[in-house]
Design a protein that fits this description.
Chain A: It comes from Streptomyces werraensis. The complex is a heterodimer of chains A (380) and B (334). By secondary structure, chain A is an alpha/beta fold. Chain A is 46% helix and 8% strand. Helix content of chain B is 33%, strand content 19%. The chains are: A alpha/beta (380), B alpha/beta (334).
Chain lengths: 380, 334
């Protein structure tokens, strides 16, 4: 065969290792955030679930207000409020089965409480008496993670381990919009997709990373779109529509449990309060913006739906308020008691067995405490 | 009684055997990292494990060290005992936040409720002609992080014993493998492995009366050679192999220095802010009245790790060690 004949027979082929791509279309999020309340989808929502969500939202709002008040009284060192984000916090806790795991960030104490953890134990980190006040294994809630997005790979590893052991367990991991810029967010999503780990990632896009708005955080079409790059579905949901958040998360949990792999959910919400009690939000945003979001308040949206359909009357609303007051009063009373601290505990759990060096240092502190007690005793 | 022939084995073989035995004894032990599966690791330490135990027990992960360690944390939370391989010393740095903020703190943060039994294997140190980012002596970073154990073997038998002990530990262990000793050989039988060594005990590798060389990992053979060469100068040097930087064995170190009255700390890590400063301070605090001379350090220079064609000038060698020994104020003796 001549060279020209060979050329004639030549058909261009793809590079040898090239594989046809997964069709990205099914992974893409909807154009608009999914909503239930005030739409036709609301008719299909379970009235019992809506009432339960309402009661938890009202409690959650009161919990946020009480915790913020405790910072003013010096009973909490700091409180990052989730006021305005209660729908996400509550739905994240309610979609999980007992055997599942929740991986919260520092702003998610409400989700932790809604999952069943004692509020006083959930708040020890922010009171400052111990980093994690609850036993993570009791309610299957990982410690609150302060370093951003670093809890996400933990959720992936735990879910992967459960699957290896043949356990029917799903992990739900929470992160904010700022956290999606962290490397650990990327690595966690990539590992989860490669391993098809039963994980749900819930991004609460509340508009701000402390003071920095989303536009300075990402140029992605939406945070949910990031899922496509990892080969997992991205879902966009109205984060203030508790019924919608619950439905989308429940779908993702079901999918994960059935072996369908991870999902990234972006919930569009708003941080009504400042970053923490120590922050001044007026330096980076206007009142008009906050007011617009107050019109789209998660409790108001759900209340409108429930009253419109005759599922909630004044007596029902009053019961929810009373339950919330009971929670707040209990929290207030217990947080107003001084934490019982034993400085010797500092050395107890650094290692399974203290090193010889720590044993020496423990004795040093013991002696210092004894001297302190003696001088206090000698004071007239 | 049958006798098992004790043949020379390499440190690499002993490490592989330790992983294999740990995986056999305990189904919760999982090996994970870059290239650890099909390839058996770039140093072949995990050779054959994926074939023997399956890819779920010896897993090729995506190429992301924070992700590897972060997911290992989650696996340990769920009752597994992960053994993570970081491919090289300087490639472990992306995992630093997971290590410092979570691995080291989880037990303490949760008041003992959530211990993390995981082992992080890191090939470290120079002397193999590696190009940039393949030869760092990174031990000081880990030593400075409370909550971690930091262990490094210098012999074939210790490689097996200490790795078994590290995997069995309920605390996280940074297990530093001196990569230039991977191919060092010793009489050691995989069929009759030595008993598992406890973590935290140093050992006197060579008894002597004149001065103590305190070292670990890659610098042990150099110190042993220096001790032999020192005989010609009339010095009878003792050599202490620390084996564990955390916990630190003050007892063995101080007992030796009290006997000899002189000490030189030898390591590849830079001297400024390196382990030698801590060790010298501990000796001075505890043995001041036994010392005939200041504790000296022979360390790597305080510079970014050199290109391979210059690394011999950087690494502590026999001459530099003997020079330091010569400066231990012997005049007072004569």
């Amino acid at each position: 065969m001549t060279v020209m004949e060979q050329r004639g027979a030549y058909r261009p082929t793809p590079p040898p290792a090239w594989q046809p791509r997964t069709d990205p279309a099914p992974l893409l999020p909807d154009a608009e955030p999914y909503r239930v309340l005030g739409t036709e989808a609301a008719a299909k929502a379970d009235p019992e679930l809506l009432r339960r969500l309402y009661a938890e939202l009202v409690k959650g709002r009161r919990y946020n207000a009480q915790a913020t008040a405790l910072t003013k009284q010096g009973r909490l060192a700091v409180y990052p409020s989730s006021t305005g984000q209660e729908a996400c916090e509550v739905a994240a806790a309610l979609v999980l089965e007992e055997r599942d795991w929740l991986f919260p960030s520092y702003r998610d104490t409400l989700a932790v409480v809604a999952r069943g953890v004692d509020p006083v134990e959930a708040l020890t980190l922010l009171r400052g008496d111990w980093h994690t006040g609850y036993d993570p294994y009791e309610h299957r809630v990982a410690p609150l993670s302060t370093p951003l997005a670093t809890q996400l790979p933990h959720a992936v590893g735990l879910a992967h381990a459960a699957r290896l052991k043949g356990d029917d367990v799903v992990a739900l991991a929470m992160v904010g919009d700022g956290g999606t810029s962290e490397g650990d967010f990327h690595e966690a999503l990539n590992f989860a997709a490669v391993w098809q780990a039963p994980v749900v990632f819930l991004v609460q896009n509340n508009g701000f990373a402390i003071s920095v708005p989303l536009a300075k955080q990402t140029a992605a079409p939406s945070l949910a779109h990031k899922a496509v790059g990892y080969g997992m579905p991205g879902r966009l949901v109205d984060g203030n529509d508790a019924a919608a958040v619950h439905e989308v998360l429940a779908d993702a949990v079901r999918r994960a449990r059935a072996g369908g792999g991870p999902t990234l959910v972006e919930a569009i919400t708003y941080r009504v309060d400042a970053h923490t009690n120590a922050d001044d939000a007026t330096r980076y945003r206007g009142d008009a913006e906050v007011e617009a979001w107050r019109e789209h308040d998660p409790i108001a949206l759900l209340e409108r739906e429930l009253t419109g359909r005759g599922l909630l009357d004044e007596a029902g609303a009053e019961t929810a308020r009373q339950d919330a007051e009971t929670l707040a009063a209990d929290l207030r009373a217990r947080m107003n008691q001084d934490a019982e601290l034993d400085p010797m505990d500092l050395f107890t759990h650094v290692y399974a067995e203290p090193t010889p060096q720590l044993l020496e240092q423990r004795e040093q502190l013991r002696a210092e405490l004894a001297a302190e007690a003696e001088s206090e005793g000698a004071r007239p | 009684m049958t006798t098992v022939a004790v043949k020379p084995a390499t440190m690499a073989q002993a490490l592989t055997r330790a992983l294999r035995d740990a995986m056999t004894d305990d189904p919760s032990v999982h090996v994970m990292g870059e290239d650890v599966g099909t390839l058996g690791g770039v140093f072949r330490i995990t050779d054959g494990l994926a074939a023997e135990f399956g890819e779920d027990r010896c897993t090729d992960t995506p190429l992301a060290e924070a992700g590897i360690l972060g997911t290992a944390v989650g696996m340990a939370m769920y009752g597994l005992r992960p053994v993570v391989e970081m491919q090289f010393d300087a490639f472990a740095y992306p995992a630093f936040e997971q290590l410092v903020s979570h691995v080291a703190k989880m037990r303490n943060r949760t008041r003992g409720k959530m211990p993390l039994p995981l082992t992080i294997r890191i090939p470290y140190g120079g002397g193999i002609g590696g190009v940039e980012h393949h030869s760092d002596a990174s031990e000081a970073y880990y030593m400075a992080t409370p909550g971690l154990h930091v262990v490094t073997p210098a012999t074939v038998a210790d490689a097996y014993g200490l790795l078994r002990a590290s995997i069995a530990s309920d605390d996280p262990v940074v297990f530093l493998e001196p990569k230039r000793l991977y191919w060092s050989k010793d009489a050691w039988s995989p069929e009759q492995p030595t008993a598992v060594e406890p973590i935290g005990r140093a050992v006197v590798r060579r008894s002597g009366r004149s001065a103590t060389l305190i070292t670990y990992g890659p610098s042990l053979p150099v110190c042993m050679e220096a001790a032999e060469a020192a005989k010609a100068e009339g010095w009878d040097l003792e050599v202490v192999d620390l084996r564990s930087l955390v916990p630190f064995d003050d007892e063995t170190v101080c007992a030796s220095v009290r006997r000899t009255g002189r000490a030189v700390v030898v390591h590849e890590s830079g001297g400024f802010g390196g382990p030698g400063g801590e060790i010298a301070a501990r000796i001075t605090e505890r043995c001041f009245h036994h010392l005939e001379a200041p504790v000296l350090r022979v360390a790597g220079f305080d510079l970014p790790y050199p290109p391979p064609m210059l690394e011999r000038h950087h690494l502590p060698g026999v001459d530099r060690i003997l020079d330091a020994v010569g400066r231990l104020q012997w005049e007072a003796e004569s």
